[in-house]
Please model this.
Amino acid sequence: MNSLQALIAMGDLLDSTDNVEELNGIGFNRADKSAWPSVRGNERAMALLLHKYQLQLMKRGVPGLEGVAIQSAVDWMGLMGGNNGFDATALALAREEKAKALAAAKARRREEAKALQAAEAAKEKGNNVLLSLEGGRLGARLNPSNRCPREAFNAFVAFVRMLGGKCQPSKGYLWELPAHADGEALRTAMAASGLTCDAVTEGYAPAASPDPATKTADVTLHLRETGEIAIFHPYCAKMNAAYRDAEEVSGVIGFDWDQKCRVVGEGEVADLREVLAAIGRVHSEWKVEAKFDLEGHIADAEEKRRKRRTPAPEWQRLLREGIEVKPHQAEGVRFLEECNGRAMNGDDMGLGKTFQALLYAAIHGRRVLVVCPKNVRRQWIEEASKFFVDGTFRGLELDSSARPNELDLGGHNLVTVNYESLKKFAPRLRAEAELGGLDMLVVDESHRIKNPSAQTTQEVLALGALFPYVVELSGTPIKNKKAELYTQATLLHPGVFASEDELAGMTFYQARQRVKLFFIRRTKKDELASLPEKTRQVVPVQGRGLPDYGQDLHVMTLKSMLAQAKVPQTLEFVEDLLANTSSKVIVFSDSDDAADAIAQGLGNRAVLHTGATPHEKREAAKASFCDEASAARVFVATTGSAREGLNLTVADKEVFNDLPWTPANLAQAEDRAYRMGQKNAVNVYWMLAKGNRFDQRNVQLMARKMAIYKKVVDGKKVTAEEEKFLSQSMEALMGVQRRDTDPMEELAG
Model:
């Protein structure tokens, strides 16, 4: 065998050894094994590679290698321990056997890996129901890796609930079972449903079942540090329906998703009582336990409210004889005091928001600037004179004829300006506020500043920044969506909401809790138990031949034409009312032309109040109509000019020739007569052109919008679909024809 063959034989023998094993003290490392196939046959390269390994062996102390050169003269047989010559055949057989052994070992390892992987997968998949110990109690959860049919899932949930288990989503939907839960009973029940279940955890011993006489409470109430009350009880679909449907509860009861409980706001005694009553109706068998002095808490809250609603005797010296402060008005004044004069009063229309603001100002000697609609600009000054003793308020009405630079505000502590004139007088009013001549800003009908980008809104916000005391008044603070509250809240407390989007994304409970520190609202239903009923009725009249769909007209044009075309039918209906009752009547239209025509048709029995009517004539019309001795029995107005501020309780009949297209405007118009001071039942009539698809759809849509709008302003919960519908413009909705339905059904709903 020549030197090349010897090198190849030696290298092949080494290469056939395992990566880390050594044959007779000689073996390739990983790098050498990968290099050997590429140098095999090149005598010099093989000699260099083997020389490298020679040095490694020498470092390990293998004897007899010093001074030996890896070359053709190397005694390879001697190095390998043999002296009888090199047997190439034996070497080849050995190499073959080694290769077979290696292949078998690799195959065996692959099979072992597969078996191990299968075992691990089976172990991970496990049973359908996994059991564990959680703080000494048994915990059960469905195995996400071994899904079960829905029927079996329902059986699992029903059984663990029956045991008294509570689900903890934050713990991977673990069901924590009570201390007395029987794990073997759980396994048996699961097996009956076709589910495999872990063995009961070693070391678990169920406690004795509770004595029914000492049953753990089904419902527990906890008083939080925030003053909220958390109410825990088992899941119940009927209770969820009760929360949604109960008018007194919906939208004002919160839900804590982290702790899975209902939440009642601080001091909301009526809401708390409603929840407890609903639980009693739905689950009379449930035991209720409070972890605090519930009755004492309720008594304290009610006593606090009773004191707030009791007028202070010293207030009476500010009022004219015969004027009394009602309980809800005293509460409103004290709420303003608690808020240090920065608050919003959202009382229903007709509960005396103007009076409450003026009384607070009079008590504390505030100098007031009122920004208000044009038609109530003078009314503020008149009511101040009507309710308060002489000298309490010295009023000044800023009309468009006044010149800002010539104004003398020094002798006045009640200045009124309408929104439309605010820009003209703003510099003068800001200067007066900076000098301290005016210190309290009242924003009447504050929903008018709902648009943050509107110039009027910007003017009001700039003024508000200069006044230490700011009061907002609006019976309709939200007209279509929660986000409309953003600028009103920002004027009072900048930063209370980060943005309109934050407010829009809140639940009604979250929004209410955020603003309740500076927002108060009472309803006529709660405060004026003696207020007569208001009924709404659709009056069908002949509508054939009146403008309708199919005439290729824009919906706004069609609306205006139909309003004017219905005038004869409205006049006929009003004539019947005048002939058969002694009532005074208010007639509304959304069209100036229709209102003019109705007033002309009634002659001297009517007074007219529209946007085109000069201010002085509007004041005269109001005074004439409210005079019981006057011959004026009908107040004809456009909803735009008379929906805000006017007190027309001398009338108890309201007729709408046509409807405005905003539910808030419609509600405000209706409540011109239905407010504090009304002694008779109020009848509201919506004139409907029978057979006219446009008018019928108008009534249907407005009836639905009014129902949703009422829920919104009362703080009730509305669905996403309802909120979306309310925010859609009537112009867009009326542009799409729908199947005819009975509008009376919509009103009844």
In short: The radius of gyration is 44 Å.
